[in-house]
Automatic annotation (TrEMBL):
E.C. designation(s): 6.3.2.9
Protein role: Cell wall formation. Catalyzes the addition of glutamate to the nucleotide precursor UDP-N-acetylmuramoyl-L-alanine (UMA).
Gene designation per UniProt: murD
Protein name: UDP-N-acetylmuramoylalanine--D-glutamate ligase
Pfam families to which the protein is assigned, alphabetical: Mur_ligase_C, Mur_ligase_M, MurD_N
Residues that coordinate or bind ATP: 109-115
Keyword annotations of the record: ATP-binding, Cell cycle, Cell division, Cell shape, Cell wall biogenesis/degradation, Cytoplasm, Ligase, Nucleotide-binding, Peptidoglycan synthesis
Presence of keyword Hydrolase: no
Statement: the UniProt record of this protein carries the keyword Hydrolase: no
Regions crossing the membrane: none
Biological process terms in GO annotation: cell division; cell wall organization; peptidoglycan biosynthetic process; regulation of cell shape
Pathway connected to this protein: Cell wall biogenesis; peptidoglycan biosynthesis
Enzyme class: ligase
């Protein structure tokens, strides 16, 4: 009986444990932190052995294969010991694909991947396909393969998940864009992070497709010195293609395998230039999966968007409050500020992952009237923007941030939570941060 050890008892860890058990492995789950009650219950129910708040080495180093949750870095002592012993350490995605014949659509990128994933899923589901949604969002991919029977999966994949693949090959891969993020995990080398994203296409064949942003500098650079076997489907706001997706005269035009799909950009429910790109990427998937044009058109016009991503919360005294808590890096905040059309009170801050604020400097000058720093350490933000805006305030909780914003904002302004940072200093995660923002706004 092969021994499967799982590091991390969260969604992907528990899902993998269930699938491993079903496939006849001897399964053990070990979490250095605390396993949440709901996951403990599931492990007990499935009679899976587990431990938390420790890693017992003799129960881990005897594994045949180890599934590491994406949040655990390669340089964690236990991972180093496993690699030294030559024990394969893989991701949930790599472990799971060997047990399913379903098609997969793998979506990665620094920003826009959640919106693109949700939209692609929406298009395929509305088109009548038997489709699952997983990866970085929703129910774990492994858990679904263990218990459901989908014909295809739309998977949001982080660079951490891609670091742990060996043979995984998506039928359709998407790279939405690449900008510096998580550099703390890549020895602060941007090229390492870029290489990590492109692992999504490393096993693809001539029968597979790679959909990508042809306006993206890092992606275009990669193609100058690297190749993929996959058929290329570029999308762009400025260029046109014989095979690809583009915008021309306010029309989104998608030409794939000599089939053409057109739709007026004004009819797409998502707003903003970056969302046009997300829409082009997701629609390219729908076209490749032969969804009816009428269905695509309908689905693009009624898609609701993603929570915590430029989500309009409420208008109070003619001030619009916007929750963009999902903006955990500077590039995401760039899109948010770029889409603002009125003077903005900007709530920013958290755990800085090596941010370079210079790229949003001109947008801040043009659009931001006041900055509210919401973090434990705000020095970098204050140094960057102290001379750029008239007013800067530091707070250490969401209620104070929102109340302060209300006092500063005037009729016709907007209050934007777009932190450009991770949330772990004051919140559990970006959802918790966004939910606290929404609750504080509703209490005004």
């Amino acid at each position: 009986m092969k021994r499967l050890v799982i590091l991390g008892g969260g969604e992907s860890g528990v899902g993998t444990a269930i699938l491993g058990k079903k496939q006849g492995y001897d399964v053990f789950v070990s979490d250095f932190g605390e396993i949440k009650d709901n996951y403990r219950e599931v492990l007990k129910q499935y009679e899976i052995k587990w431990e938390d708040e420790t890693h017992t080495e003799n129960l881990i180093l005897n594994a045949d294969v180890v599934m590491k949750s994406p949040g655990i870095p390669e340089k964690a002592p236990i991972v180093k010991k496993l690699l030294e012993k030559g024990i394969p350490v893989i991701s949930e995605i790599e472990f799971t694909v060997q047990f399913t014949n379903a098609k997969t659509i793998g979506i990665t990128g620094s920003n826009g991947k959640t919106t693109t994933t949700m939209l692609a899923y929406h298009l395929l589901k509305q088109g009548g396909l038997n489709v699952g949604l997983g990866g970085n969002i929703g129910k774990s991919f492994a858990w679904q393969v263990a218990e459901e029977n989908y014909d295809c999966y739309v998977l949001e994949l982080s660079s951490f998940q891609l670091d742990g693949i060996v043979k995984y090959r998506p039928d359709i891969a998407i790279i939405t864009n690449i900008s510096p993020d998580h550099l703390d995990r890549y020895e602060y080398k941007y090229e390492n992070y870029i290489a990590s994203k492109f692992r999504i296409t490393m096993n693809q064949t001539e029968n597979d497709y790679l959909i990508y942003d042809a306006d993206d500098e890092a992606i275009e650079e990669w193609f100058k010195t690297n190749k993929t076997k996959a058929k290329l489907v570029p999308f762009s706001l400025t260029k046109t293609f014989e095979n690809g997706a583009f915008i021309k005269n306010d029309t989104m035009d998608i030409i794939i395998n000599n089939e053409e799909f057109e739709m007026k950009t004004g009819e797409v429910s998502l707003e903003g230039k970056h969302n046009m790109k997300n829409a082009m990427a997701a629609t390219s998937v729908a076209a490749l999966m032969k969804i009816r044009k009428e269905t695509i058109r309908e689905s693009l016009s009624n898609f609701q968007g993603v929570e915590h991503r430029l989500e309009k919360v409420l208008k109070i005294h003619n001030v619009q409050y916007i929750n963009d808590s999902k903006a955990t890096n500077v590039n995401a905040t760039f899109f948010a500020l770029d889409s603002m059309t009125v003077p903005t009170v900007w709530i920013v801050g958290g755990v800085d992952k090596g941010n370079d604020y210079s790229e949003i400097m001109s947008l801040v000058r043009e659009k931001v009237k006041a900055i509210i720093c919401l973090g434990v350490d705000n020095k970098k933000i204050i140094d960057a923007f102290g001379n750029v805006v008239d007013m800067m305030v530091e707070v250490d909780n969401m209620r104070d941030a929102v109340v302060t914003a209300m006092h500063i904002a005037e009729k016709g302004d907007a209050v934007l939570l777009s932190p450009a940072c991770a949330s772990f200093d004051l919140f559990q995660n970006y959802e918790d941060r966004g939910n606290q923002f929404k609750a504080a706004v509703k209490n005004l």
